[in-house]
Amino acid sequence: MARHARRRSVALLAALALVAGEVPLGAQGEPSIARVGITGNLRVEEDAIRVHLRSQPGQPFDQDTIDRDIRSVYAMGFFDQVDADVTRLPENRVEVVFRVKERPLVRAVKIEGNKKVKREELEGALKIRAHTILDPEKARQGVEAGKKLYVEKGYLDAELTYSTEPVGENEVDVLYKVEEHGPVKVVEVGFEGNKAFSARKLRGVMQTREKWFLGFITGAGVLNKEVLRTDVERLTAWYYDHGYVTVRVDEPRVERRDDGLHVTVKIDEGDQYQVGEVAVAGENTPADTKALLQGLAITPGEVFKASALREDTQKLTERLSEDGYAFASVEPETEMRPDDKRVDITYKVERGKPVVVDRIEVTGNTKTRDKVIRREMRLQEQELFSASKLRKSREALQRLGFFQSVNITTRRAGEDDRMQVVVDVKEAQTGAFSAGAGFSSADQL
């Protein structure tokens, strides 16, 4: 751009001094712009260029405005070069013509040499698409993104280049060439700071594996950065499930040595916590909270398990729904007591109102009569909602053998205490055996 700008300045000064023997423009006052022209555009509409121009007929000529216009048109991304020619006219006027050189149109994008990465996946990273204007900067960015994609999959030595081949009037084919080379294998996965669990146990939690002689079958030894990031989450969840609720798992360090990749995961385990007090709270809770909490996996004095907390939350929600509270919500809150290494758990319960089934709608049946389907429903209209009855209804309908699929959904019927049940069936072909079923309810079922 600097070279083009110098060329424009020289052309401008020469144009303004062309008329020998006349008084310089500056002595006659600022010239006005008589006409603004655009030339060189083949595919880009002239109006699309003009909206970027501040220089307009009738305005005083201004060098800075011309320069801004050049930069603005160039920033559109459609042109390799933008220049402005200024021609002196009688009556202290000038004509400004913006000359553009369009970037070529990409006719096709070709990729050669990719074997380990699918073309569709690589195309998503390369940024260049057929039937678009070639943007060299995007092409370079695409090369870097493509290399990064290979690195993410363990191909640290992959090479990627691009070139263009003219194929017609201002059209090119873009060719990407890939040299994948082989993946750099993980030869060691180690840990720092682990005391509660052995390195072997923790390696079993991870999906990233060290290479071994059958690794070509299992994929062991290939470093996938995305999988490695997920391994951090897996390790954290593992510790949470064994009472280590303050654990911190750092981002793994990957070191390349002569024999391959060495992965090191630093862990700050913290202390192991046990379950402290377990309680239920809320403005609309059941009178007998002990019965509600009976039989849960979370037990005071036991090692805290995050997965058990999730399961118990689901179980409590289902228990409330059995009593008609279809839209009940249960949110567990935890409070840690570092002094005695306990986690107190309070289930925040909002039961809402008991929900009555307002209407049961049957859809999808073309041969089976409604009454046949309704006869199998264990849940009836104007009854309190029951998740177990709804499940039994689905199972009973499926046992009929008439349907390829049975899907039951629920939705609010306009009021907080009314629900509509929709039974949608897909009838099986004559003589066909059916075994598919589906079920969902308001939020959790």
Short description:
By secondary structure, this protein is an alpha/beta fold.
Q: What does this molecule look like?
A:
The protein has five domains: 2-102, membrane protein fhac (Ubiquitin-like (UB roll)), CATH 3.10.20.310; 105-179, membrane protein fhac (Ubiquitin-like (UB roll), Roll); 186-268, Roll (Ubiquitin-like (UB roll)); 274-350, Ubiquitin-like (UB roll) (Roll); 356-439, Ubiquitin-like (UB roll), CATH 3.10.20. A hairpin with a 5-residue loop joins strand 15 (403-412) and strand 16 (418-427). The protein starts with a helix and ends in a 6-residue tail after the last strand. It is α/β, with parallel strands linked by helices and 445 residues long. The chain contains twelve helices and 17 strands.
The name of the CATH architecture of the largest domain is Roll
In this structure, how is the largest beta sheet organized?
A: 4 strands, mixed
* Quaternary organisation: single chain
CATH superfamily of the largest domain: membrane protein fhac
Kindly provide the name of the CATH class of the largest domain.
Answer: Alpha Beta
Helix percent reads: 25-40%
Which descriptor suits the 3D outline?
A: extended
Q: Number of helix segments?
A: 12
- Enter the CATH topology name of the largest domain: Ubiquitin-like (UB roll)
Beta-strand residue fraction? 25-35%
**Count of separate structural domains:** 5
Strand runs, count: 17
Class from helix and strand fractions: alpha/beta
Euclidean distance between termini CA atoms: 62 Å
User: Topology as H/E string?
Assistant: HEHHEEEHHEEEHHHEEEEHHEEEHHEEE
Q: Roughly how many Å is the radius of gyration? A: 36 Å
Mean pLDDT: 86
Q: Which regions are unreliable across 5 or more consecutive residues at pLDDT < 50? A: 1-27, 431-445
